[in-house]
Structure formats: C-alpha cells, structure tokens
Amino acid sequence: MIDRLSQDLNFYQSALGLRHQRQEVLAANIANADTPGYKARDFDFASELRKATGQEAGVPPVSLALTSARHIPAQASATQVETLQYRQPVQPSLDGNTVEMDVERVQFADNTMRYQADLALISQRLRSMQSALQQ
C-alpha cells in the first residue's frame, strides 16, 4: 500500500519540480528582456514530464545506489531538464533579443496558475488519504 501511495505522489513531485524549473526559465527570459542578443528559452512541459515519469520509450528510471544492506530500495525522480529550446519570436528586435514580454507574461501566469492548481490537487489528495486512514 505504501508503494502505491509513493508512486502516486512521485508523479506530483515530478510535475511540481518541472513547473518550478519552467518558472525559473521564464523568469530568466523576463529578466533579460532588455539584454541585446539574448535568446528566449523554454521547454516542452508534457514531453519532459513523460521523461521524468518514465513513460517515454528509451528513458530508464533512475535508481538510487544502495551502500548498505539495510537501505530501502527506491527510485529517484529525474526532473532535471537537459534540453532547453529557443523560442521562435513573432517579431524579433533589431538588437537580436527574442524575448517578447507579452508572450513571457502569459506563459509565466499560466505556469503559476498550473503550479498552484497542482498544489491544491496534492493537498486534496493527501486530505482524502488522511480521511480514509482515520476511518
């Protein structure tokens, strides 16, 4: 039963970790909006989540090394994004900067909303588990 709860919460842990990383990437884009030659970056959240949860073919789950026979075997969630992609600008600036503030603000707000929704979902899920255990 603990393994099943663990697997369920690992998905949410991966999703929150990736949302956090995306927030940092989008914040870096906004911070460099006036930097000449800066290229806006982002990543495909859905494909990175599939990689992190091991649902994409060819991506083995990350196993933790056991240094003692008394250690409990577990799997780590691989939520580190390795490939950031450059965003194609609709209207590039003359100085080579590809950050479009309107696009970045919308993406930042959308990611924030989804992060908060994920937190609310996790909170509700934990409350329902706690309620089931108390009865």
Automatic annotation (TrEMBL):
One of its GO terms (cellular component) is bacterial-type flagellum basal body, rod. One of its GO terms (biological process) is bacterial-type flagellum-dependent cell motility. Residues 9-39 form the Flagellar basal body rod protein N-terminal domain. The keyword rRNA-binding does not apply. It comes from the Bacteria. The keyword tRNA processing does not apply. InterPro entries: Flag_bb_rod_N, Flagellar_basal_body_rod_CS, FlgB. Keywords: Bacterial flagellum, Cell projection, Cilium, Flagellum. Signal peptide: none annotated. It is found in: Bacterial flagellum basal body. Belongs to the flagella basal body rod proteins family. NCBIfam families: FlgB (TIGR01396). The basal body constitutes a major portion of the flagellar organelle and consists of a number of rings mounted on a central rod. Structural component of flagellum, the bacterial motility apparatus. Part of the rod structure of flagellar basal body. This is Flagellar basal body rod protein FlgB. It comes from Paracandidimonas soli.
